[in-house]
């Protein structure tokens, strides 16, 4: 177990360094390719309730995804983190997105005191778009270490009746041949990245 912890730590140090070396133009280029792959997925087109993380400068840009969700009349849910875990709460509009405050980690997030619809309590999700540090092509995922998405996905799959598809979006620099995993790590159904 100690070896797995150390291996994860090493990858969490390595991948951000690789991403930091990408130019803004290269990040935008890869983000556009991944965005086009996502919106052309049959599961994206049939999904009505979609959750998506709100990206930082070192992640695939999810703003166009959020815009498309609203443009297509779908419901959009975004993560809200607190000590107790992570909720997926409803984002009302692009104007709502634009006015969200930043957390100390520089991530847009609805305030904890804001009363918002919780996806788990109101019918679940059809599609969840996951962030992460590193992935394999077959769907293994290494997160940032908090376990938020692993716990959330397990809970969602246990509570909702309809099927759930989880998709990770990544820069090609985040794709590795294998990852050190434990039985607590939840895989994703699909990983989208630029070739």
Summarize this structure as a short list of keywords or feature phrases.
195 residues, alpha/beta, Rossmann fold, six-stranded mixed sheet, 6 helices
What CATH architecture do you see? 3-Layer(aba) Sandwich
Q: Taking all residues together, what is the mean pLDDT?
A: 94
CATH class: Alpha Beta
Largest sheet: 6 strands, mixed
Tell me what portion of residues adopts beta-strand conformation: 15-25%
Query: In terms of structural class, how would the helical and strand content be classed?
Result: alpha/beta
* Element order: H for helix, E for strand: HHHEHEEHEEEHEE
Structure report:
The chain has 195 residues and is α/β, with parallel strands linked by helices. The protein has a single domain (2-193), classed as 3-Layer(aba) Sandwich (Rossmann fold). Helix content is 34%, strand content 19%. It has six helices and eight strands. Strands 3-2-1-4-7-8 form a six-stranded mixed β-sheet, sandwiched between helices. A two-stranded antiparallel ribbon has the order 5-6. The radius of gyration is 16 Å and the shape is globular. The mean pLDDT is 94.
Characterize this entry briefly.
The chain is of the alpha/beta class.
Helices and strands, with pairings:
Layout lengths: L1 H19 L3 H16 L2 H5 L2 E4 L10 H9 L3 E8 L2 E7 L2 H5 L28 E4 L3 E2 L5 E2 L5 H12 L5 E6 L19 E4 L2
């Amino acid at each position: 177990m100690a070896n797995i912890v150390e291996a994860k730590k090493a990858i969490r140090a390595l991948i951000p360094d690789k991403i930091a070396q990408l130019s803004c133009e290269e990040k935008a280029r890869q983000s556009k390719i991944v965005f086009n792959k996502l919106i052309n997925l049959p599961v994206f087109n049939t999904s009505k309730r979609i959750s998506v993380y709100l990206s930082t400068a070192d992640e695939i840009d999810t703003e166009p995804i959020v815009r498309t969700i609203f443009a297509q009349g779908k419901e959009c849910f975004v993560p809200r983190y607190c000590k107790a875990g992570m909720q997926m709460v409803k984002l009302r509009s692009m104007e709502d997105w634009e006015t969200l405050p930043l957390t100390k980690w520089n991530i847009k997030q609805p305030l904890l005191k804001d009363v918002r619809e919780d996806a788990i309590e109101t019918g679940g999700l059809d599609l969840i778009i996951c962030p992460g540090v590193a992935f394999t092509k077959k769907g293994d995922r290494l997160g940032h270490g908090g376990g938020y998405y692993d716990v959330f996905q397990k809970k969602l799959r246990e509570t909702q009746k309809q099927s759930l598809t989880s998709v990770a979006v990544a820069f090609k620099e985040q794709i590795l041949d294998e990852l050190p995993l434990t039985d607590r790590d939840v895989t994703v159904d699909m990983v989208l990245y630029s070739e």
